[in-house]
Amino acid sequence: MTTVNKTARTPWRAILGGSVGNMVEWYDWFVYASFATYFAASFFPKGNPTAQLLNTAGIFAVGFFMRPIGGWLLGRFADRRGRKAALTATVMLMSGSALLIAIAPTYESVGYFGAVVLLVARLMQGLSVGGEYAASATYLTEATPPGKRGFASSFQYVSMTAGQLLGLGLQIILQRTMSEEALHSYGWRIPFIIGALGAAVVFWLRRNLMETEAYDEKAAETGAQQRGTLRALLQHKREFVLVIALTMGGTLAYYTYTTYLTKYLSNTAGLPKTTASVVSFCALFIFMLLQPLAGALSDRIGRRPLLIAFGIGATLGTVPLMTALSNVEDFAGALLLSLAGLVIVTGYTSINAVVKAEMFPTHVRALGVALPYAIANALFGGTAEYVALWFKDSGIESGFYWYVAGCAAVSLVVYVFMRETRDAALSRREEAAEPVPERV
């Protein structure tokens, strides 16, 4: 067991570099979901609003199916060329995809070509985010001393949530300063332009990061051709399957209570769009603040207790929570119920990145985190909104609640029997329990 160095300082520059870039990445990713109700009619024929949302949700899901490819390509790149190089590459891809959406032509002007541009942009986003998660998770884990990794890696979901809050906050501002007609006409393009510009700033920030000690150590020992290969990854089949299984319930619950929540409160509960947006914003802000607290708790008591708490809560609580949310009538009730769901999800989100990174050795860590996580997200996270809308359109919306609870139950079984990863050593220095100097 590794002796934890309690005196090592928290590398805030590394946390800032990894998380701020992650924030911009996920701002662009989530802006698509939060503004879909406004631009859905721009790319598809007029008619059934639910059908238009299904089309845009389908393109949203397609982006997730590119994530395994992005996870493989950029995870391999991160293991071969370094975590810093992968982090800069992902933000460049995301900037380009946001710009494409911002300038995409509408159905009225070019027919379905606009939807094709939208699809291409989502494919680019899928590639980028597929690699971003692994590069960010690996960098934050490796750049942090033992005893503080849970806390540091929790900023991945702090930044993800902050990106979503920026998108929702901008949506609230635009809703209050622009007419409904203007938002549907051109206002929805504004957040994508902002995202493209923000990525340029992050590109500069990430170029000034230092590489992690664990990667430099492994790079000095082995050639690039021996790092980040599928053959090397397949030597860790058990960990590969574990990542898929432990992600299954967590990612589905996360997207249910975040990206889908605003639409659910509006389409099912019947709350005004503006009220639903404010509920989501307030709930997500509190959720964001909970992440470092839960991450720090995992450094003291271990990762498994938090994962098990999430598994039990999501398995038993999803159906009653979603049922109650469907009947909510005011802001206060919607906020309290949304927070209940997000508090449960915190047991997963605050530490899932560090758990995965601690499972794999350095030479395949980025690829080992990226590929199985991206596969699970493609199958369960990316399809969450589409599946939910399909159940609703079929008249059996409650079936979606049971689907989420069932997936959480499968992950719960994994949490109960998996090994604790908190004390994993990531470098020779940690194996020898030597003092860990601040590197960044």
From TrEMBL:
Subcellular location: Cell membrane
Gene3D superfamilies noted in UniProt: MFS general substrate transporter like domains (1.20.1250.20)
One GO cellular component term noted in the UniProt record for this chain: plasma membrane
Annotated TM spans: 26-44, 56-74, 186-205, 240-257, 277-294, 306-325, 331-355, 367-388, 400-418
UniProt cross-references to PROSITE patterns, sorted A to Z: MFS, SUGAR_TRANSPORT_1, SUGAR_TRANSPORT_2
Record key words, sorted: Cell membrane, Membrane, Symport, Transmembrane, Transmembrane helix, Transport
Molecular function as annotated in GO: symporter activity
Topology of the protein relative to the lipid bilayer: Multi-pass membrane protein
Lineage top rank: taxon: Bacteria
Start and end residues of each Major facilitator superfamily (MFS) profile domain: 14-422
Primary role: May be a proton symporter involved in the uptake of osmolytes such as proline and glycine betaine.
Family: Belongs to the major facilitator superfamily. Metabolite:H+ Symporter (MHS) family (TC 2.A.1.6) family.
Name this polypeptide is given: Putative proline/betaine transporter
Lineage of producing organism: Bacteria, Bacillati, Actinomycetota, Actinomycetes, Streptosporangiales
